[in-house]
Write a structure and sequence with these properties.
Strand content: 15-25%
Largest sheet: 3 strands, antiparallel
Order of helices and strands: EEHEHEHEH
Number of strands: 5
Strand order of the largest sheet: 2-1-3
Number of domains: 2
Number of helices: 4
Radius of gyration: 20 Å
Distance between the termini: 39 Å
Shape: extended
Helix content: 25-40%
Length: 142
């Protein structure tokens, strides 16, 4: 496996793992690589120093900065869903099943479902994913 440092057209840095250099080139040509923050497919490799076995890292990763970046990305996902999908409230399981079975208009929805309802949807092959939680109020952060 090869780890590449990648960057998108909006200067978002991230990394990707590929089976070979050719695998990256193939996936890139097919438009299969996208930025996890903004979903653009205009992604390229960054210049990287080779990893040398036995070398020690002198700089520690900033866990707080990575956490903040992840929280921002999850907030963007949630805002996108809330702005572009239909909120069906507690009828989510019923509506998701109806869309999956072709009995309702095919569209993006979000809402609430019990753990049992979600388990039944997944077991029946209905594609569902959890929506990221609402970000905490800035006044409630440490």
């Amino acid at each position: 496996m090869i780890r590449y440092a990648l960057i998108c057209e909006h200067a978002h840095d991230f990394e990707g793992w590929f089976g070979s250099s050719a695998a990256f080139d193939d996936q890139s040509a097919k438009g299969l690589i996208e930025c996890p923050l903004c979903a653009t497919r205009a992604v390229k490799k960054q210049i990287m120093a080779p990893a040398i076995a036995g070398a020690r890292k002198t700089v520690q990763d900033d866990g707080a900065a990575k956490t903040q970046l992840m929280m921002q990305a999850m907030g963007r996902i949630r805002r996108h869903v809330e702005a572009n999908f239909d909120d069906v409230g507690d009828a989510f399981a019923t509506e998701a099943r109806a869309i999956h079975e072709g009995r309702a208009e095919d569209r993006g929805i979000y809402g609430q479902a019990s753990p049992a309802e979600v388990r039944d949807l997944v077991e029946d092959g209905v594609p569902v994913v959890p929506l990221p939680p609402k970000p905490p109020e800035p006044s409630k952060l440490n």
